[in-house]
Amino acid sequence: MNIRIYNVRILTMEAGKGIFRGEVWVKGDTIAYAGPVILDSKEKWDQEIDGRGNLLMPGFKNAHTHSAMTFLRSHADDMKLDEWLNTRVFPAEAKLTGEDIYWLNKLAIMEYLTSGITSVFDMYLNKPAAERTVKDTGYRMVICESINDFGGTIQEVEEDYHRYNQDPDRRISYQLGFHAEYTTSRELMEGLSGLSEKYKIPVYVHCSETKKEVEDCRTRTGMTPVAYMDSLGLFAHGGGLFHGVHMDEGDFDIIKKRGLYVVTNPASNLKLASGIAPVKRYLDMGIPVAIGTDGPASNNCLDMFREMFLTTGLQKAVCDDPEAVPAMEVLKMAAVNGAYAMGLPECDTLAEGKKADMILIDLQQPNMQPLQNIEKNLVYSGSKQNVKMTMVGGRVLYQDGNYYLDSSKEEIFARANESARRILG
Amino acid sequence: MNIRIYNVRILTMEAGKGIFRGEVWVKGDTIAYAGPVILDSKEKWDQEIDGRGNLLMPGFKNAHTHSAMTFLRSHADDMKLDEWLNTRVFPAEAKLTGEDIYWLNKLAIMEYLTSGITSVFDMYLNKPAAERTVKDTGYRMVICESINDFGGTIQEVEEDYHRYNQDPDRRISYQLGFHAEYTTSRELMEGLSGLSEKYKIPVYVHCSETKKEVEDCRTRTGMTPVAYMDSLGLFAHGGGLFHGVHMDEGDFDIIKKRGLYVVTNPASNLKLASGIAPVKRYLDMGIPVAIGTDGPASNNCLDMFREMFLTTGLQKAVCDDPEAVPAMEVLKMAAVNGAYAMGLPECDTLAEGKKADMILIDLQQPNMQPLQNIEKNLVYSGSKQNVKMTMVGGRVLYQDGNYYLDSSKEEIFARANESARRILG
């Protein structure tokens, strides 16, 4: 499909470009042009979208989630992370089939689309189900390996690394990772370290989410999780830490030196009483931060607007500094940094040659008026209500409240409710 | 108009009633029936609304806002409260006309409607503009008096108390109040105290929003703002405190003894780096809490879903207690307590004889699925996107993204942008 979007304000997220009026051409899954109006073009279009009154920008990247946990939404709230994981999450997950995960992923994708999220860094069970979801829906997912002591071998990880990195369209791809230091043996971590070295690839992991996790690791190893994992060579080729809430001085230095990304998940960290990540400190040190929703079991929603407001709002309050983490910095985390964090540099900005992962923001809503500063409006007062269209890889998957997926909304809801009922009773 | 809403799940917010399926009858501005399905009714309806798949509940009450500050949205962010007030807000407000305020109020009302807010406790300049807005739009506003050293006399306040409490429909009403201890002379506060005593009426005020405010008051008076204002007799007939972030032990006792409401404004307190109010402590002491958005200049949006998540999420993190402030408690604050806080007991629940201020929540959206616990879904994953219909005083003012006001969306946006441009340049 060749699509032209015209009459529109454009925020490319390229440094220094600001917002300008113009048009964007999409050919196949790629942006063919993004710039001022072109008169007298001879191009033929399959679809033309009038963007009058709206803003076109790169989609948001959800840099840490567990999509299929939609079945646990509002099932187990108001509990501490470790109790929640051990008494509620793990027993329920043991009953999940690949078919469940396929439909629960689709439910999550619907919600991502409503929030302008065009790709996710998904850490969950059953990679074939993720691959099938992506193939059928047209969505873009990066699988984050989540091996741990409860399942998986280094050999399987190596096979998966090859298997899931063969999609020429990069709608499915794969990054090396593991669940967490506290669920993974030293032997396994050393194996992963070996793979990272063999292929010169980054490693991603849940890290320092709770105080208890850090204290337990210190008791066992004499080191913080960051220092201990670094001592095993896991970060020699970069990577990223999910959550990154409780850090000591040495940790900041390691993160900086290894060029790690930190993916902050502020809503989940509040709801599970895990704490508030030192995002301003990361930024002051030049450590790149991306944003994730975490899974819908802990958050409980998949809304990048909520996360963006929290990412700046919490820092302002905690640092007693209303200038902390300005709006444009937050937009960069959500739209650009997330792409790099999950290994999708071709999805960072709205520019020629990049993947056509874009969203149309409805500015003709009261929360966007008056139009004094659109970037600030997006971060401080934006909501799902403003997402008019979400395009992934050149395909419109959501527009004006309608979903353009291979299954109907009704079928996805019915299947997700069936799975939840069967598993949770 | 007589309206019947049928085929719908109903959450009346009456204690112990839970959610049931049934129908609701509206006659004029009042709820005539809310209960199980009635077969073979002979009633004639002007309009029947099929609520299949949705939830009907009382609207949210925004218990502290400054509606017409919409013109300052995204104009002055990232500043401390006192600098922000003195260098940005006050100089801009000096240029506002009644006509500006009328249109800026309408812009705010549009946004309230998208967020399911059916009444607001509005503290702002120019009461005639507020009255005119309410008359023309059909919305419900309670004016909170905001007298201070920069304008107003006790005699005018007394006149306004009578003038704005005459609407038989109670779409406009008036409560005694003043801006804040730090902007109001002792003489004026004593005058207000006298009026409160004369009419046995409550008093509302911004209170203990920032640390500096409390420290300055201690320096001047030797007391906290709560203790000082109480010593002047201001709370002898109850009332409420907006913000209530920085409290000492004695303050909690005074608030409890006087039966004061605390109206929490979590997003504004984060954004202005004012702090996090001790909401869990208030609840533990049995102090009733309501929720406000504060004005769009500090928040920057008017979204009760954001405030509800923050009201519980922040307490969980700050108190290191994921069980703090459960979802149903938050819903009660937003829908019920707010009504009492602003003197609208006839708007608290969805029951026969109450005002027909109701909202229809779209459960057929991915963030509400699966339907395991609807109350939790509302608080932890709800968004403006779920507001399908907002009814105030028996009139549908918003439905399926369309506004049913006396002016068009385009006109309101144009007028608001004109005002902002003229005043801010």
TrEMBL record, chains A, B:
Top-level taxonomic group: Bacteria
CDD domains: ATZ_TRZ_like
Domain Amidohydrolase-related intervals: 56-396
Leader sequence segment: none
Keywords: Hydrolase
Protein known as: Amidohydrolase
